[in-house]
Amino acid sequence: MPLTLPRSAPPRIRGKLPRKLPRAAAWACAVFWLLAQAGHAIAAGEDRKVLVLYSLGAENISAWQAMVHKGLYDELGRKAWGDVPMIFEERFDVARVGRQPSLDSMAPYLRTKYAQVKLDAVVTENYLAATFLNSHPELFPGVPRFYVNHGRRGWRPRDGEALEVAHDYGRMLGVITRVAPSTRRIVVVGDKTPRVQEWIAGAREAARAYGQRLQMEYWDNQSFDELYRRASLLKGGTAILMFATYTDSTGGAALPSDVARKLADVTQVPIFTHVESLVVPGIAGGYVLSGEAIGRAVAQVLQGQPADMSNVQRYVFDYQTAERYGLVNIPQGALMLNRPHGVWELYRWQILTGVGLIVVEGVLITALVMALRARRRAMGALNDERNNLEDRVLQRTLELLMANTKLEQLATTDPLTGIANRRKMTEHIAKELERVRRLRHPLALLMVDIDHFKRINDTYGHEAGDRAIIAVANMLSASLRAIDTVARFGGEEFVLLMPETDLETAGLAAERLREAASLLAVEVDGGLAIALTISIGVAASRPQQAPDTASSLLVRADKALYQAKEEGRNRVVLGP
Ligand SMILES: Nc1nc2c(ncn2[C@@H]2O[C@H](COP(=O)(O)OP(=O)(O)OP(=O)(O)O)[C@@H](O)[C@H]2O)c(=O)[nH]1
Q1: Using 50, 70 and 90 to split pLDDT, how confident is the model at 65?
Q2: Does pLDDT of 492 surpass 80?
Q3: Is residue 4 included in any domain, yes or no?
Q4: In terms of Cα–Cα distance, which of 227, 210, 217, 211 is closest to 186?
Q5: pLDDT-based confidence at residue 23 (cuts at 50, 70, 90)
Q6: Which CDD domains match (predicted)?
Q7: What's residue 3's pLDDT?
């Protein structure tokens, strides 16, 4: 299937668009014009038809042909809207069907196939196709012919244009002595075909410049086996320059690339060559003809441009082989094939992406860790603050509690004696009377008064009176049961409350207290100790009668006390 590409013929816009043409209309016109031109260009491209005749068979057979083909289509492909004709391609399939059958069948084949095709040009690539076309003037009558890379110096076709590469044999040899400076002998390998002989002649001529400094040998007339055997015997200081070799002295045929590989396998010396397609692993390289450059030249011819044949040679080396033979001074800009790429070259974007992701991840993790740390610190500070607050609240609560307790104590304690005061006793009485009402238990109340206390004060002083009050308070406290309570009710008067105690029992208890008081000895000034007595009025709540109130109970006890005073003091009187 021939390749069809559009042809560009950039037209000129004549005249000007009307100034006041609306913008939308101008755009529509421009698009219409572009489409029309594209259609015209495609149609124009399809109008032109050219035939490329290759010498060396399909690309999968010939590395050289693959390179030429690539150069041709790369060059055409660069012209998106270029002057690209419809390309037909034919090949002499020498490697698969043999040289003669291939040559014999080509003319009738072309005649039949292209009987109805009007070609605009025929281009040959390489020696075989050029020879064939030149010897068949009857084919494609009147169609311009171009013979590219035909391989013979000074050859003029009987018709058409010859585009031959001017091989630079001087550079071909020069690069060998440059990159392998110890080279004193060059063995040129080839065969007896006219084209190879032409190359050998070129090398021979160029070698003259070296005189005695370079020993040249030309191996072009031996069997392949002999070639490999002799190559295996070559020693240091020698290099091989291998031209594309197809045949041997016995008529044997081979692909030049196979010959190159075998030579590389057996020899100990570096092998250089003259075409890029032979720079295979094991072949060092050299100043070689570029298949792609030839392909580009063919493309230029097909497009009607002058073919640039000056730049079709370049320095190409096989990196591994150059390393193996320790080649030096490789010209700058040389193409190095099979260079092992470093990890960086191979995976640069993957590495950069990976590193970028790691950096981003690192930054995110760092930010996260910092945020977590900051949060933890804030939480810690908050906890400390809360604990401090709780401690302070607890402390304040305790202080308040203690203050309240103290206040309560101060409010309910008699400061002189340390026992409960009147207020506290009043609360006790109310509480116990409540129990009496609920449980119907007995409750006794003793009202105690120091006899003739005024006299103690007056005789021994107020402080002695205080000591007497304290002595009586201590005695009363010490004599009480756990459930009894005592309070200083005022002045030298005390009240005792005795739960679960009836009037008689309370009277007995009061009697014991009276006796205990009479045994007290209160110290006064001058080391003297004075005695005192107490009078006690006893009252009891009677569960079977109307319930008492605090004041009714106190009044009855007070009356009993009054009676005790009246009856002479130092006695106990039971109330009604
Ligand atoms: N030292 C001292 N004297 C007090 C205190 N409270 C009251 N007094 C005095 O106690 C005396 C009480 O005297 P009175 O009420 O006349 O009774 P009394 O002298 O004990 O006589 P009878 O009760 O009838 O035996 C008064 O002189 C009060 O000034 C006190 O806290 N300390």
Answers
A1: confident
A2: yes
A3: no
A4: 217
A5: low
A6: GGDEF
A7: 31
Per the structure, the complete domain to which residue 399 belongs is given by 341-412
Residue in 419, 421, 453, 561 to alter for ligand 1 test, most ligand atoms within 8 A of Cβ: 453
pLDDT, tens digit (0-9, with 9 covering 90-100), for 362-386: 999 999 999 999 999 999 999 999 9
Nearest-CA residue for atom 13 of ligand 1: 454
CATH number assigned to the domain comprising residue 485: 3.30.70.270
- Boundary of a domain, candidates 380, 412, 444: 412
**Are residues 231 and 203 part of one domain?**
yes
Statement to judge: residues 71 and 180 lie in one domain:
no
For residue 273, what is the enclosing H or E element?
strand 271-273
Out of 447, 448, 492, mutate this one to test ligand 1's pocket (max ligand atoms within 8 Å of CB): namely 492
Which residue type occupies 472? V
Polymer length of the chain: 576
Q: Tell whether ligand 1 has an atom less than 6 A from the beta carbon of residue 414.
A: no
489 and 507 inside one domain: yes
What value does the mean pLDDT take over residues 83-92?
A: 86
Q: Is the CB of 533 under 6 A from ligand 1?
A: no
Task: ipTM value, please give it.
Answer: 0.93
- Which domain-ending residue is among 386, 412, 438? 412
> Is the pLDDT score of 130 beyond 90?
yes
The string of DSSP codes covering 51-111 is: EEEESS--TTT-HHHHHHHHHHHHHHHT-TTS---EEEEEE--HHHH-HHHHHHHHHHHHH
